[in-house]
Fold:
Amino acid sequence: MPLSVLPISLHENDLLGGLLGNLGTISQLLFTVLFIALFFGFGQKLQMRQFLWDIDKGLRKLDMFRNSAKDLTLKTVKEVGKPSTDPGPQINVLMEQFLISPVDMDPAGIVGKIDHLLDVRDEKFKEDVRRIAPGADSSQVMNLENLVEASWALNTIYRIIRHFYLMGKKTNSIFIIIQLQALLPLIIQEAEAYLGAAKAFAEGQPIGDGIGPLVASRLMKDKEKRKVEKDVVVAETMMEDRRVIALKAEGPGGNVGKPGDAIKTIIEENVGKVSMVVMVDAAVKFEGENSGEVSEGIGAAIGGIGTERYKIEQEATLHKIPVYAVIVKESLQEAITPMKKEIMEAGEKVIERIKSLILERSKPGDTIIVAGIGNTIGIGQ
Structure:
């Protein structure tokens, strides 16, 4: 082979290698562009369809829950209340009731305004239930009121989820749809709890939230009781040489009463004598914790919108009275569904904790207030 051929062959190989290298780079670039286009175009649409399908399935389940609760409410009202006319239309009206919060631009006096609105709302709701169930006694009216409220909650949850689902679908907003799809399992779990609560209220069964009233009821057993403030009863007993004033909502109807007003009244009746307040209530546990575990802490253990807690804190601060809390851990579902065995058995542990607290933090002859906070459905005096 002539020597002049070798450089020509090497030059041709370099050109071929460079051409193949450029083709590989171009192919990789095209593939990357195509992948990005698919991901942000077709892929996003496919993901949106999957999310919408999941939400639609969850929405149908929520609709089934609210219809089940509504049918149960209608059936129970007819059986217990014995109305002369069909209560369906009035129940539909109650399902749409709402409460408008007062103006809070000037926060001074806001607690009193909210408390007044809640009182008006509760009285109207109770009268509306009594009107559609004229044959029900006072305890049954309270149970029916709780039942209607559980149905109202399920109806409200369904309406809100449907609103955001349709708005996200209408505007094609992936941000609304993603958030809704992510939260939906928790919302369905809460809705299932409300449906269980509706069944408990229809049958008048104690619920997990009633652990506070259950403890107070045990302390009040065989003692003379009197009514103070709205729907709250109290009784006196002795524990470890201390005078204990126990209070709870009036049962066995579904009722939470006004414990803030009751504690305020008792403190004013015993000015300078009350050395401590112990509040017993259910508390939502963390995942991984056991239901029925008992813990103690500092402060007013009471849920709700905050008006009752405000009253307790105000009165305790005014008279320099320490407030202690003993809580029983349970899930949200356990709090509003029929009381489980492990929660009921925690009542004795709570009483032992109360004894330990008053031994450590008070002297013989002191007056102690023990408040059982929660819904007292199915729990008598």
